[in-house]
Amino acid sequence: MKIHLYILTALSLLLASCSSYSIVNSHVYDNAAIARHKTFHIVDLKMGSLPPRMDHATFECIVASIRSQMLERGYKESANSPLLINFAVTVHDDTPLSPAGHEIVDGPYLSCTYPCYIIPQDHYLDDHYLESGVIKAIYQQGVLTIDVVNLKERAPLYTSSVSSIFDLEGNYLDLAEIDKAVDKLFSDYPVPPLPQYRQ
Question: In the prediction, which pLDDT does 91 show?
Answer without folding.
Answer: 87
